[in-house]
From TrEMBL, chain A:
Tagged with keyword ATP-binding: yes
Organism of this sequence: Paractinoplanes toevensis
SUPFAM superfamilies per UniProt: P-loop containing nucleoside triphosphate hydrolases (SSF52540)
Protein name: ABC transporter
Gene Ontology terms for molecular function: ATP binding; ATP hydrolysis activity
Automatic annotation (TrEMBL), chain B:
Organism: Paractinoplanes toevensis
InterPro entries found in the cross-reference section: MetI-like, MetI-like_sf
Designated name of the protein: Nitrate ABC transporter permease
Membrane-spanning ranges: 65-85, 106-132, 183-208, 220-240
GO biological process: transmembrane transport
ABC transmembrane type-1 domain mapped to chain residues: 57-241
Primary gene name: ssuC_4
Family of the protein in this entry: Belongs to the binding-protein-dependent transport system permease family.
Phylogenetic lineage: Bacteria, Bacillati, Actinomycetota, Actinomycetes, Micromonosporales
Length: 258, 259
């Protein structure tokens, strides 16, 4: 579903170019849940923006559903980290969710139904009339997720969506994302700097190196499909996997520092 | 209830005190140029209702509304175009700064030379004065739209008219409103100035006519009319602003309370 081949991205400054991504090759199968984790500043967001068609690669190729990405591809939605800035503060929650559907040309009755369903799916059944700023941070991110669900994307990209919410809310939202993925079956690419989160959520974890960035490891997460905040996180296999990822990232940082 | 009372008290308190002071200080004044306030208020109804409302107040208001409306409309349209286009912005910014720095009243003689002394010129005078604050504030507002929201629009392929209406204009609206408010008071000033030169009716014209005819209480009452007009329009503006920027004040309050 997602194919990235030798993706390279440099930002040109005055006389100084920064190489954000050196060589990324990565494939995500249809319906898979993949987490991308890496040291901070390694260009995770750049990678996601290239996939979302918000940035064009310097070289290499990015394909979504077999189509080379030249602009925001059809059937792809992004949930941004800055929930407070990705919802329209002048629109009510329901209108925020409805807006992309309007531009997609969905009929009014169907729009209303999709808005209702997606709000229910994120546990905000009766928040439609509120304004985003009347909600807590965690609830705002739920609205952003509901907006993505209502859009019915084939691919959902999430850019450190829970980096700015408190730990308890975060656990709830992680479980919500798993539930949404299992229910709607879209392909998920979830970018995070949190190793535990990556291992807990993904079917596969892609470990990125420090900048200049390449793929260090593709790690299958052989945990059961039913994940539970308490049980899964205390399983021996979970601890092993997270320790492994942690070691790889430390290693990557060490190389960068040397 | 007591809060409402104290707020209204604060609002009208000072004007009432000033008027009462004026009333007593000017009572029994024999000066021709400073008639007692009582006389001014007495001539007020006869001066401004009836025929003069139709012949002078009404034409002024019509010119004001058309001129102000055009200033806001043109200001927003050009402001969106310039604000959304970086090249155009760098090209036009020095010119705009220059044009803004010219006090609009000095343009009135030029406009009269070019366009005559008819109604279109009087409207044009208002547009020329009111346009700049709207235009420059709109440019700022459009330039400052949030990048994450902009990315959100791109990624959901919200474009064209829908994007303009539900994103760009709304995001820039706090600044557009600031510009529109400035433009409103400038428009009133420009309306009067336009009527001082070569006019045959209107509020500004009438006040000057009273002065020339030594109808001093009537002249004073004309100043009151203009002041009241300003207050009423500003009040109406506040009502509109509250509707348009309801979200903005709410979001700001939520931010302050550390939501």
């Amino acid at each position: 579903m997602l194919e990235i081949k030798s993706l390279r991205k440099t930002y040109g400054g005055q006389g100084r170019t920064v190489e954000a991504l050196r060589d990324i090759t990565l494939t995500v199968e249809d319906g898979q849940f993949v987490c991308v984790v890496g040291p901070s500043g390694c260009g995770k967001t750049t990678l996601l923006r290239c996939l979302g068609g918000l940035l064009s690669p310097t070289s290499g190729e990015v394909k979504v559903a077999g189509q080379t990405v030249t602009g925001p591809p059809d059937g792809l939605a992004i949930v941004f980290q800055e929930y407070g800035r990705s919802l329209f503060p002048w629109l009510r929650v329901a209108e925020n969710i409805e807006l992309p559907l309007k531009s997609k040309g969905v009929a009014k009755a169907e729009r209303r139904q999709l808005v209702d369903e997606s709000l229910k799916a994120v546990g905000l059944g009766d928040a439609g009339k509120a304004y985003p700023w009347q909600l807590s941070g965690g609830m705002q991110q739920r609205v952003a997720i509901a907006r993505a669900i209502a859009f019915q994307p084939k691919v959902l990209l999430m850019d450190e969506p829970f980096a700015a919410v408190d730990a308890q809310t975060r656990a709830d939202l992680e479980d919500l994302v798993r539930t949404v993925w299992q229910r709607f079956g879209m392909t998920m690419l979830f970018v995070t700097h949190d190793i535990d989160e990556a291992v807990y959520l993904g079917q596969r974890v892609v470990v990125l190196s420090a900048s200049p960035t390449s793929v260090l490891e593709n790690l299958d997460i052989d945990l059961s499909d039913e994940r539970d905040q308490l049980k899964t996180r205390s399983e021996a296999r979970f601890v092993e996997l997270r320790s492994h990822v942690y070691a790889r990232i430390q290693e990557a940082k060490g190389v960068a520092a040397a | 209830m007591s809060r409402v009372l104290s707020r209204t008290g604060l609002l009208v308190g000072l004007p009432v005190v000033l008027l009462v002071t004026w009333w007593f200080a000017s009572a029994g004044s024999k000066s021709f140029y400073q008639p007692p306030l009582e006389t001014i208020i007495k001539v007020f109804p006869d001066t401004w209702t009836g025929a003069r409302f139709k012949s002078d107040v009404f034409p002024s208001l019509i010119r004001l509304f058309i001129g102000y409306g055009l200033a806001v409309l043109i200001g927003i349209t050009l402001g969106v175009l310039i604000g959304a286009n970086r090249r155009l912005r760098s090209l036009l910014e020095p010119l705009l700064e220059f044009l803004r720095a010219i006090p609009p009243p000095v343009l009135v003689p030029i406009l009269i030379l070019v366009a005559g002394i008819g109604n279109p010129t009087k409207v044009l005078v208002i547009v020329v004065g009111g346009l700049w604050p709207v235009l420059l504030n709109t440019v700022e507002g459009v330039r400052g739209v949030d990048e994450v929201l902009s990315d959100t629009c791109r990624s959901y392929r919200i474009g064209g008219w829908l994007r303009l209406r539900t994103f760009v204009l709304r995001a820039a609206s706090p600044q557009i409103v600031v510009g529109a408010r400035q433009a409103l008071s400038i428009s009133i000033i420009m309306m009067v100035i336009g009527e001082l030169l070569g006019a045959t009716n209107g509020l500004g014209y009438t006040v000057v006519e009273f002065q020339r005819g030594f109808q001093i209480p009537e002249m004073w009452s004309g100043v009151f009319v203009l002041g009241l007009l300003g207050v009423l329009l500003s009040l109406a503006f506040t009502l509109v602003e509250r509707r348009v920027l309801n979200w903005y004040h709410g979001a700001r309050a939520a931010e302050r309370s550390g939501h």
